[in-house]
Amino acid sequence: MAGTITFMTFNVRHDHHDHSPTTFFATPPSKENPVDNKEFEGEQPWSIRKWKIVDTILLYSPDILALQEPVYHQLQDIEALLDDEYKWVGVGRIDGNREGEFSAVFYKNEVLKVKDWKTIWLSEQPDVVGSMSWDARHPRTATQVTFVKNDTVFTVFNTHMDHVGIQSREEGAKLILERAREAGKKGAVVLLGDLNSTEEDPAYLCLTNGKYKEKKGSNDTLANLQELNQVCASAYSEKSGQPVRTQENHITLPTHRVIRPGQILANLKKQEEQRELDKTSQNYFLDAHYELASRLKSKGRPGTLSGPFGYRNTLTSFGEGTQDFDRAPIRIDFIMPLESNQFNVQVRQSAILCNRFDDGLYISDHRPVFAKLSW
């Protein structure tokens, strides 16, 4: 067992506007009244936003942090503020060094060790630095990192797909799937990133093989209130031996399990048939949001969440009048473990966290996504 590992993916918004200083620890602009939330409406400079971005990272303390869009001086800021607890890998998408946006992977140095890593360009020439293909507006990359924890090997991909090119996203998804399946022979694989794809987009459908076409909102807490109440009442009644009244004229009574050898043999045979079928099938990515081991799926097991925590969407924009305002809010940031019978990744927690509080500041135009996985 690799134990439990926590993941966060966060598009922190680039900082290469014409007015942006390109030095780390740049002086933030002064505000006349810092307690007035109108002072912080719209997109604020990185020199203001970075503090609460790093606070979010420190508060949730992920073992692995996948960032999209930062340029080099932003990474210097984050690295300095996180101090020695985290190290990171990644390159700029333009020159394979420091130029352009990064898809950087930070990791807890005391928990994980990097076995190897590389950057691939989502193009017809994935090993050519700065390459771009199909209908992409910019060069796009995926950072592939192989980690070791207690002799357990696993691989992480962090990507930021093109915001314009539908074909480039789909072809990029195929490339990542190919590389992930190869890495999956050695250990578990987890994809994180801003896919710029909703659940209806070809890239998402390619990565998940269309598994969630009819499941949008299916495991939302508020969509399952009656079922959640009933399974939890049944679990409590079975554990305590006490009847529970869940609704008018409905009493949940303790039950006793009956062991039926014939049924056990039938289940074992079915599992063996499924294993043989899986050997000849291709693996796809699972959406942690839907694969959460919730109270409903676990039949009321204590300690499990009622559903994905927090918000439903990840792209918010910076508010009215900004570039993405018309298409927000949508969910385009994901954490996705690769299917594997051998490693069987379990989603223990899944959450979309806050990017704006009542001080008025959007720390980014995306919300961070958090998950706790084990295998």
TrEMBL record:
Coiled coil: none annotated. Pfam families: Exo_endo_phos. One of its GO terms (molecular function) is 3'-5'-RNA exonuclease activity. Residues 8-202 form the Endonuclease/exonuclease/phosphatase domain. PANTHER family: CARBON CATABOLITE REPRESSOR PROTEIN 4 (PTHR12121), ENDONUCLEASE_EXONUCLEASE_PHOSPHATASE DOMAIN-CONTAINING PROTEIN (PTHR12121:SF36). This is Endonuclease/exonuclease/phosphatase domain-containing protein. It comes from Parasitella parasitica.
